[in-house]
Amino acid sequence: MKKNTIHTIYTILMSMLFISIFSISSNAHFGSKGPFGGTITCTTIAADTVYMGTAEGGVFESTSAALVGWRARPVGLKSGKITAIAHTGIRLYAATADSGIFILNGYVGTDRYWNKINNGLTNLHVTSLVAIDATTLMAGTVNGLFLTTNSGASWTAVNGNLQHLNVSGMKKAGTRIFISTTDGGIYATDNNGTSWIDFNDSNTSNVDGTIALSYNTATDQLLVLNTNGLFVTDAASTSSAPSYSNVTADLPSATVFYSVSNDGTQWYVASNKGIYVSVVAEISWSAANTGLTTLNVKTVEPFKTGLVCGTVNKGIFKTTSRFDPWTAMNVNFNNLKTTAMHTSGVAFVVAATENGVYVSKDLAANYVTANNGLIDSLNVTDLTMGESLLFAATKNGGVYVTADSGRNWTVFNTGLPTLNIKKLFYSDYVLYAIDAANKLYKTSITTANWISIQTGLPTGVELTSMAFFNNNILLGTFGQGAYIKSKTGTTWNSYNTGLSNWADVHDWDVTSVAAAGNKIYIGTEGAGVLVSDSTLASIHWSSAASTQTAIPHTALMRLNGMKIQAMGVYAGYVWASYKGGLLATSDNGVTWIAGGNQFNLPSYTDVTKITFVTTRVFVTTENNGLYSNALSEIPTIITGILNASTLNTTALQVAPNPNTGSFKLNTDNVVGKITGIVIYDYAGNIKDTFDGTQKEFDLNYKQGMYVVLIKTDTDAVYTQKIVIQ
């Protein structure tokens, strides 16, 4: 079989590319890859669906009454700082601490996204929401109240005679609405905010720290939480002169209370010392914390026959009945602040979070903590591997190393003049570090002996990224373009020919760099990706962004695909991330495609790193942990295959697929006599060739993705992917 190397697979498999992209768009998405957990701020329940708002990670929902799994709902939100959630029975609304209010009513196919609804809302720090009817809601802010009667299309201030405008909570009681204010106590309105009733007595009036309230429909009581404790009043829906009773007895002193709720017969309080319960008829508090792995509980709500609660850092717990032990329910609750990630091989994943470092050896199915000896484990800034060694950079402890996948760490700081390290890079047994002051160091990975390699770099330069090519190092800087030196050289040299001199274009603001084949790339803050040949004498940067397009749904959210945050190289692609999205190119930046269906990626947080295992791409998001997608869902790019007059990507079938290397080819739908069979690896290298008669295969290949190609005497080419597990 004659081989022709003048065309890349991109040219030949263009139809395969689009078939693959559109065939997966409806059912393949980036998925949460943990470690799971995080911080809850608010909860609302609509029938069997529970919605959780988080401190910085957006909204999550569970549509199962058993709460067996969560799905992130981040797309379209401009902020992940959720302060309140409300459901009208028709629509879901979310309030944020800095970006106003959003409604979940956008659709792209079966996927849903949030739309901002701030028309008339003069304060975007929203603290509370209450649904009055299907289209009417009231919102509390740090500077007053607003009402919508048209599902958020417009808002009107409804402060009436209210003097205290810093609203902290809100509850509906029939036709009456109660609000708590941080310094004025409790107020009520019977006319949707046209006028307000001072609903205080000496226990609540002008008391600082009035932060929560709960209305009991069964008993017509209002429970109020302020700095002085818990207070309850009767006839709440009709009275205009409340009389509060102090019901703080039996609660431990110095407790910080966060929220209150009830189920008609029981009151529930969430605090920094756990959950407390009392019968309504005769208040006497008792702890209900069995099974909780933390006592720092932010919310507790009745759900079905049990309870559901949200904690600080440790995620979500539930009970099946009111007084059963708590069980963690965090599957896919991907809400831990994540500062670093590294992946390698077939299934190795390590992530640094606000709870420390976690390691998985089974492709993020299960994690174990890996902090022994890593004294600064809560402040890890970067992770990388050199040969079999895993390295961690930290803010306060310098660099640590482990030879046993995180079971035991030791310091690796000899010669390092600072312990605040922000980035690590590895190549050819050499580890490189950038510190917080943007100084650059290197050492052999065998023995720590850090030395400065700053010569040639401008004073005060901000270093961002590093890549390696042809025994050279490409260094990105923010504001001063790209620098290059040989690995053994002593001096950095500026290589910025072709960069614009216009300050507002951001060509010089390099956020990330990459190298692939005979090309080098820089990702910029606003000018997209620039590309150059890698030969030093002919480096000239040109835009790879003229045809670079944001993923459609991120363009809909007005996210800027030209503000590149990270880059990577794998599987025949150069990858580039931006807030809310991931792009890939296989033709040196001439064209870009979406790196998988990314509808689960948050629209409000950066995509800070791109890494790979054999079969998957991983990305890090700051406040929602790791997300991953199968590389089999991205069009395969290989080089050097046959030129063909026609191409068919559907007729040839592989079964089973995925497989372990043993499979059969079904060629029933192939037209013409088969003249040859070739199997390529993902990099485009020929693995094996076979004559046209072979139909059964037993290949001893590593796990990964391959392409089988057959050609017929009609000059047609048939291709299909093979996934070997």
Short description:
This protein is mainly β. The protein has 3 helices and 66 strands.
What does this entry look like structurally?
This protein has 725 residues and is mainly beta. Among the domains are: 119 residues, YVTN repeat-like/Quinoprotein amine dehydrogenase (Methylamine Dehydrogenase, Chain H), CATH 2.130.10; 81 residues, Immunoglobulin-like (Sandwich), CATH 2.60.40. The chain is 3% helix and 45% strand. It contains three helices and 66 strands. A five-stranded mixed β-sheet has the order 59-66-65-62-63, with no helix packed on it. It has a four-stranded antiparallel β-sheet with strand order 1-58-57-56, with no helix packed on it. β57 and β58 form a beta hairpin. It is globular.
Question: Which SSEs are present, and which pair or pack?
Answer:
Layout: H1 9-12, H2 14-24, E1 31-32, E2 37-38, E3 40-46, E4 49-54, E5 59-62, E6 71-72, E7 82-87, E8 92-96, E9 101-108, E10 111-116, E11 126-131, E12 137-141, E13 144-148, E14 156-157, E15 167-173, E16 176-181, E17 185-189, E18 197-198, E19 212-216, E20 221-226, E21 229-233, E22 245-246, E23 257-262, E24 266-271, E25 274-279, E26 286-287, E27 297-303, E28 306-311, E29 316-319, E30 327-328, E31 334-335, E32 338-344, E33 348-353, E34 356-360, E35 368-369, E36 380-386, E37 389-394, E38 399-402, E39 410-411, E40 421-427, E41 430-435, E42 440-444, E43 451-452, E44 463-469, E45 472-477, E46 482-486, E47 493-494, E48 510-516, E49 519-524, E50 529-533, E51 542-543, H3 552-556, E52 566-570, E53 573-578, E54 581-585, E55 593-594, E56 607-612, E57 616-621, E58 625-630, E59 646-648, E60 653-655, E61 662-666, E62 674-681, E63 686-690, E64 696-698, E65 704-712, E66 716-724
Parallel strand pairs: 2-31, 59-66
Antiparallel strand pairs: 1-58, 3-4, 4-5, 5-6, 7-8, 8-9, 9-10, 11-12, 12-13, 13-14, 15-16, 16-17, 17-18, 19-20, 20-21, 21-22, 23-24, 24-25, 25-26, 27-28, 28-29, 29-30, 32-33, 33-34, 34-35, 36-37, 37-38, 38-39, 40-41, 41-42, 42-43, 44-45, 45-46, 46-47, 48-49, 49-50, 50-51, 52-53, 53-54, 54-55, ...
